Fold this sequence. Notes:
A: four-stranded antiparallel beta sheet; 10 strands; B: 420 residues; mainly alpha; 2 domains; 64% helix
Amino acid sequence: xxxxxxxxxxxxxxxxxxxxxxxxxxxxxxxxxxxxxxxxxxxxxxxxxxxxxxxxxxxxxxxxxxxxxxxxxxxxxxxxxxxxxxxxxxxxxxxxxxxxxxxxxxxxxxxxxxxxxxxxxxxxxxxxxxxxxxxxxxxxxxxxxxxxxxxxxxxxxxxxxxxxxxxxxxxxxxxxxxxxxxxxxxxxxxxxxxxxxxxxxxxxxxxxxxxxxxxxxxxxxxxxxxxxxxxxxxxxxxxxxxxxxxxxxxxxx
Amino acid sequence: xxxxxxxxxxxxxxxxxxxxxxxxxxxxxxxxxxxxxxxxxxxxxxxxxxxxxxxxxxxxxxxxxxxxxxxxxxxxxxxxxxxxxxxxxxxxxxxxxxxxxxxxxxxxxxxxxxxxxxxxxxxxxxxxxxxxxxxxxxxxxxxxxxxxxxxxxxxxxxxxxxxxxxxxxxxxxxxxxxxxxxxxxxxxxxxxxxxxxxxxxxxxxxxxxxxxxxxxxxxxxxxxxxxxxxxxxxxxxxxxxxxxxxxxxxxxxxxxxxxxxxxxxxxxxxxxxxxxxxxxxxxxxxxxxxxxxxxxxxxxxxxxxxxxxxxxxxxxxxxxxxxxxxxxxxxxxxxxxxxxxxxxxxxxxxxxxxxxxxxxxxxxxxxxxxxxxxxxxxxxxxxxxxxxxxxxxxxxxxxxxxxxxxxxxxxxxxxxxxxx
Lengths: 253, 420
């Protein structure tokens, strides 16, 4: 049994008057991939955005309840989100590389956190990050080209490399393959498999098949509630809840 | 209605619309052509001035200085007699009256032009040189063909005898057209042949510079704060509405504001580029804030999130990523705002820039004119020389505006990132 890395207890999220999450209790295990599935608008993304406090950017968003990472209270008002986000990286639905060079895309994070004091240290970080995200071979000769000139799949791997560059403990992925073609998706999934050796990964996905392929643990959300959570195998083969059963067999969603 | 009929009707409607569109574009272009043609035909002659080639003999007896005199001595010396003695030789005049008429064909600056020649070479005493002396406005306009000579004499500014002299000059090839350096170098003058936009150019330059220095940083910082940091609530909504309102306030109102506050209360020097610059900055501020905010808004939120997600602070995400991306739009908005300020007349009239200023301002606190106000001033003058100068000044003003707008468009097209 793996260690629990992130623990949420009675987590509630409100957007203005509308409640988006209801008493979510979910444990995420260290160095494991947890997949979050569920129909659109069910709160999966809202949940992972609580983990790196990305909901802070939405003025009307209010989070109550408890969410901890290694005993650190993430929801603490006095917590420095900058150092939190250094430990919890994020990859978004649509690849969003900075309109700068490939090199600058990756070196930006380490630079602002004061990692990589010298040029050679930075070079090393860039190379390692790109290698870890399986992009090095494709871009090593054109690091000064703009990140936006890459293909969609490459851009997404660049974004993963950018997340890795600050050496986080957790990587959040919000439907990272929804804008990609099947080949690019396969590459990202392979990558996730590799990355879970080092990082705790949470992935939101609309593809049941993807959840089965990449995750060890799956949580099913519906209308802001966590309906069922368990080992991926169990959720997809023999779920306890009727709703989970209906969703994974495609009866609604 | 059958299917074919409906289809035909649709095609007809489309054709009609194309026709309307083309017609309106054609009409608009026609007006532009008429305007430009009108300005050019009236103004292009102002870039040349008529000169009368005259022999000047520097007679020691008429001068109180010697060869090798210092600059100061020359400046203080009187060249009036030298001028008179030489100019009356330009045409074999029979008596004093004829000489007087002859002298009127030269500009009021003839003495200064002769003095300048001596300043360039202070060993001219005892020598004769040929000099291109600026002709008076009347001869200038006559020579450029702007002045009809077939009017009866009492309705002409030029007498019959002066026409005879003019014809004599033409016959002896003593009259020609040179580049009009006075138009660019001189300040305003009562004599059209000597009036120039030098003062107005410098005044406009100082005004726009001050306007830029004041408005740009304030506008950019205000836009960044409002767009990126300010909470979205009723107060910021109210500010936003008022910025939009201020951008639509008639410029003359800013003139009144400046008149009351800057001139009456703070007592800044009147008619100066300093006050003009502050007034224009007030007017331009909201006009820069609006495009600045629009270009900040155009940066997709995913860039901000990308930066925040790797642990950038709000400040870092804004200043490392959003602002550089919004910069081209910000700069082009600023340039267009400044171009508007450059063409602004009404507020400047209220703060006294409409004064008659001969000297070219050497600092922003010297009384000065500005290009659009110079246009306004000269357009009120009756002399034909000012008619062409008005149009020529408009040409200068328009070319500045076109250049500025071109730079703005170029910046936007070249550097602005497009998001799909």
